[in-house]
Amino acid sequence: MLLDMVMLSTGMRESFRELLVSRGFDIRLAPKGTLPFDTDATIPDVAAITNVLRNNPDIREISPVLGGSIHIEVGNRDVSSAVLGIDPSVQGDYEFLSGRDVTTADAIVANDYLIRQLGARIGDTLAVASGYDPQTRTYMGQRKLVLTGRARFIYGAAEQSAAAVRRETLEAMEGQARHDRASLFMIRVRKGADPDRVREWIETYIPSVSAISIATAIAQVDQRLSYFRQLSLILGAVSLFVGFLLVTTLVTVSVNERSGEIAVMRAIGVSRTHVVQQIVLEGVAISFAGALIGLGLGLVTARYLNAILSAFPGLPMAIDFFLFQPSAVWTALGLLIASGIGAGIYPAWRAASLPIAESLRREAIA
Amino acid sequence: MSEAAETPVAPAESPIVSLRDVRRDYALGAERVHALQGVTLEVQRGDYVAIVGPSGCGKSTLLNLIGVIDQPTSGTVEIGGKRVDDMSDWEATAFRLYNIGFVFQRFYLMPILSALENVALPMAEANVPREERRERASQLLAYVGLSNREHHRPSELSGGEQQRVAIARALANRPTLVLADEPTGELDAHTGAEIISLFQRLNADGTTIVVVTHDEDLADAARRKIHMRDGKVVDGGGGGYA
Lengths: 366, 242
Fold this sequence. Notes:
The complex is a heterodimer.
Chain A: H1 2-21, E1 27-31, H2 46-54, E2 59-74, E3 77-86, E4 94-99, E5 107-110, H3 112-118, E6 125-129, E7 131-133, E8 138-140, E9 143-153, E10 162-166, H4 167-174, E11 184-189, H5 195-205, E12 209-213, H6 214-224, H7 226-257, H8 259-267, H9 272-310, H10 326-352, H11 356-365
Parallel strand pairs in A: 3-10, 5-9
Antiparallel strand pairs in A: 1-11, 1-12, 2-3, 2-6, 2-11, 4-9, 5-10, 6-9, 7-8
Helix pairs in contact in A: 1-6, 1-7, 1-9, 1-10, 7-9, 7-10, 8-11, 9-10
Chain B: H1 3-6, E1 17-28, E2 31-43, E3 48-52, H2 59-66, E4 74-79, E5 82-83, H3 89-99, E6 100-103, H4 115-125, H5 130-143, H6 159-170, E7 177-181, H7 189-204, E8 208-212, H8 216-221, E9 224-229, E10 232-235
Parallel strand pairs in B: 3-8, 3-9, 6-7, 7-8
Antiparallel strand pairs in B: 1-2, 1-4, 4-5, 9-10
Helix pairs in contact in B: 4-5, 4-6, 5-6, 6-7
């Protein structure tokens, strides 16, 4: 449990950090006061903002992304999906798997889940609309797009349809209201440049956006996940304390049962220091044995719980609640051994303080 | 270890054990028990003394004081001419390690150690090099007739064999004095006789032995008997062996 709690306390944060750095973008721009894709709000004047950003020599790549939803007609069925309007040369939202990327205005790539929903194949032409009016029962912004490839959307959930088209295609489908707008900008900074200095520069020169570096994003996620951390801290401390009490009890019982043996050891000249060492080692050995079994069980439990929690709707596939890291194992092992040492101290002190003659007399009477 | 602890004790002519007007009181609930009431006795080097008397007369208390595992309420205890009644725990532990061998009624061998390792234990505590202690432990087991049991654990040995291992352990650091508290108490008559014989051989080889016993055969085998009653030596307290 301790290992699970150590893994839980750092797991989401670490897997989120890995998710953010996986595509090499250092800064995200979201509409002022929001987090990326937290709301439907968009950033206006994409072209103008892009020009401003290009004035900063530390900015290497700019990737505006427009988010939306689409409806795809399949026979009498309507399959809806999230869609991203991107520039395929600088996009950081998906990993292209096979086929052809969205190199043309009529191309669309989709994840496997959507492709399965559609029952489509690469090369199929799809009737895609950007909206549906249930009153008039008509699709809006309809286009014929060719499914050109498969992609894995990094920020998407496992059971979530996702697709990508060129940003200008999505803008054209969504009409004037979404023209020259982006839900998000992803920015790569030049190697060696400080992302936080670039972030500050952006917030100064483009006040309509919130600039979020990986560090600030993690800090915000940390803030939102404080519940998990507190929970894991409390449960971890409880498990450690229970383990401590258990080992103390076991070693104390063992010392009490062997008081005659210990008194004899002292009588034949074994020093108090060696008695203390032996009893503390006993505590450590019990803790270590328990730790080895517990770590194995903890890893199995973490895997199981992770599978359940990661299946929460809307969570990116790449997010893990329990992230295995060697440091977590070492931390848990270190805490357990420290607890074993602590647990051995009281019974060791008792053993070393046993009055030899009195203990032997009691043993003889017993 | 302290130099005092390692220094061979007692010139040959002086008594190896000397108690002067030793009293030992302890609390038993609300009562104050006077376990020893002014005991004075001497034991000479090479002697074999049996302390006898009814249960509760103070025999084991006396043995504990001679063994430096307890301290008197008043009076003085000297072992080999060295005052031991006011030693610190650290000094007393070191003194016992090098100068006194203990044999107990219940053997008290370490269950996870082999016979050889049990015998080598006090030597390990005395920082005797590994090879030397293995060799000496092996010789001691041979001395007590257990050459073929070196690698057996206590649970694989009979009571008599366990007591012989305990005797070998008591001899590990070549003590000048061996103290035994009811060493035949847990043994049948035949095995007890073997242990008695072993003690006699040990004494014949120069080891000073003090035993506390109810076993008449064991007491009769000693060179001298000290009779105790109600915390006092009533007979045989003087240094009789020369």
